[in-house]
Amino acid sequence: MAGRLPFTRALVTGASSGIGEAIAEQLGAAGIPQVVVARRTERLQELAARLPGVEVLAADLTTAEGLAAVEARIASEHDPIDLVVNNAGFGTSGAFHELDRDRLEGEIRLNVAALTRLSHAALATMVPRRRGYLLNVSSVASFQPAPKLAVYAATNAFVTSLSESLHEEVRGTGVKVTALCPGLTRTEFQSVSNSESYADTYPEFAWLEADKVAKAALADMARGKPLSVPGVLYRGLSVATGVTPRGLTRRLSGLVQRG
């Protein structure tokens, strides 16, 4: 990884797969100690076995107990954390009125409520120290409507907005907040969200690899950028979305999902 990363100890949620695991791998390659968080203990232990300086914290962030354990670790003065990566989250694909309401509620609880609490824990610890980094993993879906992934897009719109707001709030304090907004990335997301049926319809050039997303995210985080949008294609789309009339954006999104 080009350039030395400025982090001394990280905490990564959702580290058992996908972008979270790739970020943990990048941090491990840079020799940065870290706490890895997820529900799947065996996956975390496998990660710890192949990376130096890894502390395993198994926690379900949809529960009060899991959240409290991670908040306590972030706030701990013992081996203090100066990078928090909120990567845990999932999506649900399908017609909104046909989806399981409990699953959608769990999606909101993890993608929004848990991320908000851990962001608060991070800044409450970092701002008084006048040093720290918070990386919230969102999606390019946060920039426009996403029919058939409506709740996922809405939760990510919250994450991006929150992160940009916090970036400005802590300006000048020595703390940096970044929202990572990747496009289509090859992870377990497609199978978990039940979107494999239309994922195959996207061309090869539209897909990003998790390790490259992770590398770009950490570099942008180190630079203190408010938004990290890996890939030329998705950076262009994010700009275009900002100038395209919302009615047209909605229609195009709907056509893509029906295609």
What does this 3D model show about the protein?
Helices cover 50% and strands 12% of the residues. The longest helix is centred in the middle third of the chain and has 29 residues, at 101-129. The protein has a seven-stranded parallel beta sheet, with helices on both faces. It is α/β, with parallel strands linked by helices and 259 residues long. Helix 4 runs parallel beside helix 5.
Radius of gyration: 18 Å
**Helix share bin:** 40-55%
Structural class: alpha/beta
In the predicted model, the low-confidence regions spanning at least 5 consecutive residues are 243-259
Question: How much strand content do the residues show?
Answer: 5-15%
How many individual helices?
Answer: 10
- The average pLDDT value, as a whole number, equals 86
Task: Specify the biggest β-sheet.
Answer: 7 strands, parallel
Q: How far is it from the N-terminal to the C-terminal residue, by CA? A: 38 Å
Q: How many strand elements?
A: 7
Rough outline: globular
Strand adjacency order, main sheet:
3-2-1-4-5-6-7
